[in-house]
């Protein structure tokens, strides 16, 4: 870590605290050369590997945008979507991997979306799981009625 004042590469940690619900660590540091103090914010990177093979940073906004389409015309607020995106990110981070497959992100969305709105869940699942027939919808609806927790057919 380089000092922002004298650019010396040695510093010691004076204090550490978690920030942003534990998603990052705030560290107070002191430069060993000039003695001045500065703050750093350390976060873990979370990347998503898409079907095409491209890798990009995880984005709550992209989760909200994708789910917003499924929730169109439903009584779901932006706050509900933000909370869902937060739950999805927490679920993915709990896996402990820095690189996750986009399929895992989709799976992480299904559970909270099912709890939020069943119609939006069916819309999202029909695209995500590539429903090909009415039987696929019927199976997903039967699972919802039974209170199942599995991935739709």
Automatic annotation (TrEMBL):
<feature type="zinc finger region">
    <location>
        <begin position="3"/>
        <end position="34"/>
    </location>
</feature>
<feature type="domain" description="ATP-cone">
    <location>
        <begin position="46"/>
        <end position="136"/>
    </location>
</feature>
<keyword id="KW-0862">Zinc</keyword>
<keyword id="KW-0067">ATP-binding</keyword>
<keyword id="KW-0238">DNA-binding</keyword>
<dbReference type="InterPro" id="IPR003796">
    <property type="entry name" value="RNR_NrdR-like"/>
</dbReference>
<keyword id="KW-0547">Nucleotide-binding</keyword>
<keyword id="KW-0678">Repressor</keyword>
<dbReference type="Pfam" id="PF22811">
    <property type="entry name" value="Zn_ribbon_NrdR"/>
</dbReference>
<keyword id="KW-0805">Transcription regulation</keyword>
<dbReference type="InterPro" id="IPR005144">
    <property type="entry name" value="ATP-cone_dom"/>
</dbReference>
<dbReference type="GO" id="GO:0008270">
    <property type="term" value="F:zinc ion binding"/>
</dbReference>
<comment type="similarity">
    <text>Belongs to the NrdR family.</text>
</comment>
<dbReference type="GO" id="GO:0045892">
    <property type="term" value="P:negative regulation of DNA-templated transcription"/>
</dbReference>
<keyword id="KW-0804">Transcription</keyword>
<keyword id="KW-0863">Zinc-finger</keyword>
<protein>
    <recommendedName>
        <fullName>Transcriptional repressor NrdR</fullName>
    </recommendedName>
</protein>
<dbReference type="GO" id="GO:0003677">
    <property type="term" value="F:DNA binding"/>
</dbReference>
<dbReference type="InterPro" id="IPR055173">
    <property type="entry name" value="NrdR-like_N"/>
</dbReference>
<dbReference type="Pfam" id="PF03477">
    <property type="entry name" value="ATP-cone"/>
</dbReference>
<keyword id="KW-0479">Metal-binding</keyword>
<comment type="function">
    <text>Negatively regulates transcription of bacterial ribonucleotide reductase nrd genes and operons by binding to NrdR-boxes.</text>
</comment>
<dbReference type="GO" id="GO:0005524">
    <property type="term" value="F:ATP binding"/>
</dbReference>
